[in-house]
Structures are given as C-alpha cells and as structure tokens.
Write a structure and sequence with these properties.
By secondary structure, this protein is an all-alpha fold. The radius of gyration is 24 Å and the shape is rod-shaped. It has one domain. Helix 1 packs antiparallel against helix 2. 89% of the residues lie in helices and 0% in strands.
C-alpha cells in the first residue's frame, strides 16, 4: 500500500471511531464505550508515527543525495599534476 493511502485510512479510522464513540457515549456510559475512544486514539497515534517516519526517511534520502553530489564534485575538480 502506498503511504498516502495508509495515512488516509488511518485518519478516516480516527474520525470514524471518534464519531461512533460520541454516538455510543450518548447512549451508554463511558465505561461501556471507552474502547471506541481507545481505537480512535490508537489510529491517531499510528497516523502520527507513519507521517513522522516517512518524513524522516525522505529527509535522510535527500541528505544522502546531497552528499553524493558534493562527493562527485570534489572528485571531478581534482586535477593530476605532472
């Protein structure tokens, strides 16, 4: 699955579980419906984790590309003295 699809599903799950929790909380007590709130919070935490992990990997990849460019320039600029 693509990262965008995963993030969309997790965010939709967060909102969906939160709405269902509010409706269930109005019908019953907090004790009977807290599991829906926990599912909503869990989806939100996985969404945040996924978002931060993908941004860190993109940042690391950009830094590696920049290092490769500077190394290639340094090798190309050296001349052989005779």
């Amino acid at each position: 699955m693509s990262p965008k699809l995963t993030r969309t599903i997790l965010l939709a799950g967060t909102v969906g579980f939160l709405i269902v929790w509010v409706l269930e909380f109005r019908r019953t007590t907090l004790f009977d419906s807290y599991w829906l709130l926990l599912l909503s919070i869990t989806c939100l935490l996985f969404f945040q984790f996924n978002r931060l992990k993908s941004s860190l990997t993109a940042k690391k990849k950009a830094e590696e590309e920049e290092l490769a460019k500077t190394a290639k320039k340094a090798v190309a600029s050296k001349t052989i003295k005779k």
